[in-house]
Amino acid sequence: MLISYNWLKKYVSLSAVEAKEVAEKLKASTVEVESLQDQGELLQNIVIGKVVSAEKHSNADKLKLCKVDIGSEELQIVCGGSNVREGMLVAVAKVGAKVQWHGEGMLIELKPTKIRGEESFGMICASTEIGLGELFPIKDEKEILDLTDKNYKIGLPLAEVLGLNDWVLEIDNKSLSNRGDLWGHYGMAREVAVLYNRDLQKYETKKILPGKDFKLNVEIADYKWCSRYMAVAISDIKVGASPVWLQEKLMTLGHHPINNIVDITNYVMLDLGQPMHAFDADKVEEKIVVRTAKAGEKILALDKKVYQLNENDLVIADNKKILAIAGVMGGMESAIENSTTSIIFESANFNAINIRKTSTRLNLRSDSSIRFEKSLDPNMCEIALQKAVELVLECCPESKVVSKVVDENNFSLPVGPIEISLDIFEKKLGIVIPEKDILNILERLGFEIKSKKGNLLVFIPTWRAVKDVSIAEDLVEEVARFYGYNNIISASLKLDNKPPLINPLRKIEKNIAVTLVKGLGYSEVDNYSFISESQIVKMGDSLEKYLELDNPLSKERPYLRRNLLPNLLENIKNNIENYSEVKIFEIGKVFSVHQTGARVDANGDHLLPRQDTWVAAVCAAKKDEAPFWQVRRALECIFFELKVDFETLLTDVVLSWEHPARLAAVSILGKIVGIICEINPFTSQSLGIDQRVGALQLNLSAISELLEKQSDKSTYKPSSEYPEVVRDLAFLVKKEVGHENILQAIQKTSELLKKVELFDIYEGDKIGEGYKSMAFRLVFADNTRTLVAVEVDAIMQKIKTMIKKEFAGEIR
Amino acid sequence: MQSKLEQLKSEVLLALKSIKNKANLEELENKILGRKNGELTNIMKGLKDLTDDERKIVGQLANEAKLEIEAVLQTKKIQLSQADWQTNLEKERLDITQPALPKIEYGHFHPNTIVQNDLENLFNSMGFMVLDGSEIESDYYNFTALNIPESHPARDMQDTFYVKNHEVDSETPWVMRTQTSAMQVRALQKYGAPIRAIVPGKCFRNEATDVRHEHTFYQLEGFVVGENITFAHLKGVLETVAKHLYGEDTKVKLRPKYYPFVEPGINGEVTCFLCKGNGCRVCKNTGWLEIFGAGMIHPNVLKQGNIDPSKYQGFAFGLGLTRLVMLKYGIEDIRHLESGDLKFLKQF
Which domains does chain A show, CATH number per domain? Predict the structure, then answer.
């Protein structure tokens, strides 16, 4: 929303105060001021000129060589405007002026130049090139601003003739979303008056003297949607241009003047924040009805578009037709035209939620709907109507009020009082604000205060009683923001006497990330939680296993990931071209269709889907044909760092993207918590990856839950004082014999065996087809004595016999 | 005899001066102390021919001389050995400018993780626990519990992703959480008051992506509830965070801002760390960067969390983690963060 500084000054004396300062203060205490524009600044060195001659440029078909009279001199200017012609009044940007080429990009300072061999001293401007595109909309890109019918004096600065000597504050609409009262200049002036501790001018209006000639009846179907509807008819109107002051005011705020009646409704809206509407009285049959639309009813609105309405939309109608979409936009049929002689003014209050729903559904936001959806004070209807009538009578001296002033209403506002004790300000803010300051701020804002047994009774002004101020905390805010947030002295939180609870899941996440990054050289990626149908299909998965967004941003990625792999594999594909090896991981939440998680509220039985945090690490390298071992190593490191023993198990469950023979379930404490595998080469290929990919996936939520029950037991044992005996053992066995089985069998053979470790595996030409050679290192020790060779020899013999017997092994 | 010993000593000292290598030293050692024919050895051997008294005196002298000579020989030996090493080590000189081979690839944390961990540590040190919540959240916790009733204009501010079959008008609407504040009421219900917690996490808005906008981004929510927690405490915490992030000189400026779940509501700006408040492109020439939204928790929110607002009060604040990351590293396009592009990620 735009606010005019000059307009504010009508209501609060701001002598010796600069607009910039007001903007800063409003920013600090009231609203977000996005920009402050000096109206004249952009138009410096731009003057009114008259085209004396416009001849074809000798070297360019579309350019004209113009002589332009700007009062003090005559300039030669090359102009590409499609409508430039002799005798035209134009806006001339002299050398030194700043313009925007074609209304886009940075401002550029004009310099004398040569265009296709002809000298040019300035530019004849299009409205968009000097920031006046809103005031003077262009029909065609090449069109220059034609001021011929304005009869401005040649040579005058454009800013002056347009009355652009104001400062315009651009307020962020979002920062006004709870402040319906600030959508007009008077409301904003009230804040400024409090900021400067100056008096706010009383808003004066004259009472309307009713007439009798016109029967005006209004019927409100349901006061829930329209709590007040005021209307009055005026005849003997002469529709025409508004007085200059009114046009200037509107133009300053970017409103294009239309005609006196429409301009007055806009003026009153900008002044008081109360949207108004004017109907052509001759086009309204019998009475005005405020009702909800019938399904399918249509209206041609003032924006020349047809809108189809439904039963939730509120309309203004007469007996035959819809006159307006209530609070959103009027209809063409009852619009004010140049031939209009009688009008009906509407000043009403509509339900904020209803207006918002309609305007959202129709995708039609107007200055009116924006205001109504913030909740307005129904008391404003009357002041606004009085002001509008006053202005019409002023602009059209022959006109007269010909009806009674209709006021159908049924509303009551929660104006309190709020009972508070004075110390609430200190209790909430942590500082002492003098009582007189508190009272001064509240009273200047329009609150009425009475004392009651040491407490205060605070009555809320009607314009703040609309969904804005209702509780003590609201009053604390009013006082704090005017006292100044920056005047509040900060305080330190006292140290708690208990340490913060530890989040076990976060601890595991961090531990694993460190292991992968620092220990193993994996890089962390962060992917979207959304995936596409094509990703799912290529993984060989089925869509029904995925939750789906109702309103995805891109139709391409509507599904919620149920594991981290699809996006990680996409990362591999996108990166492998640039790197000989890609090792990446992600820690994030995945979404389950079948399992349930947290409650949707404290009491009900509905549950959200389960959303576990997983880690997935994937790796691929150009020469690595078995990256399974990379992820196996990652798995070992992760659990080493977590100080947890794990097992890898064969699993019957093989998912579509998993390599069935390079796949293991990972289990801790007897529960499966993850998978390591290679991606099925078929899947990789369909994803466009030529390399083998290893993948590790662990459910960290599950691991965290399991470990929470585990105590941090120390496993420290003093080391033996007696020497260890180390023996190596190598043997051939069939390839399918599992390491885990052999390991366990060896470990069982003797108490003295402290460590058994595989250190080499060999398969190849030197040994028979279908066989592998395994080499183990065995460490023997006794904590109470030195071992002798013969007893170790005996155990070794026992192991060899066992390997031969149980695993058909051949000792090497 | 005595003079013979003295002479021997000075001979040795003299000879030592010209000795330049181990071989010569050994030769000299042999000549003097050699078991068979060493000059001193011979003297020692001759002791047995002396009378007891003479032997006592000369024997002692000879011993002393022997120790003395051995000592100087030993010193010389060390000197030579040192010099020897020196020459040999020089031959082992390496090109210290050369990197270690084979090269190993280092891993990299996502920049978001770096900033998030840093803040988690800071807040931990101030006694805040770290929570994480659901990313698919109920409409209730994301909006209603936060004093944002249905059709409240505030819902307009956030274009929300809904989950199919749990649409906005359904009986159980599910949203992709639009803010980490969604965890506030869950935490209050679970842990009660007093409480200090932060909730870093992923949030979603149905917003077209461009250089500065993402539908997926990270926030860090924090809140404190206790019996005497005031606005001044909020300001204190925000100042601590600002100084932690941008240095001791950093100032915090607070301005009113409307959020339905706080009252009063503010936003916080900090001195631009790049231009130190003088104005630059990053702060759009204002000298300030907006990084916080905050306020005193609305009593309605406390009530939803089963906290008695007449006994307890508190504050909440939210930081745009993604924004902090972009500011810290000067990242020009927000979309890099979720691109999975290693050329980008390997820079952190």
Answer: 2-27+171-195 (no CATH), 41-161 (2.40.50.140), 217-409 (3.50.40.10), 418-485 (3.30.56.10), 504-708 (3.30.930.10), 725-811 (3.30.70.380)
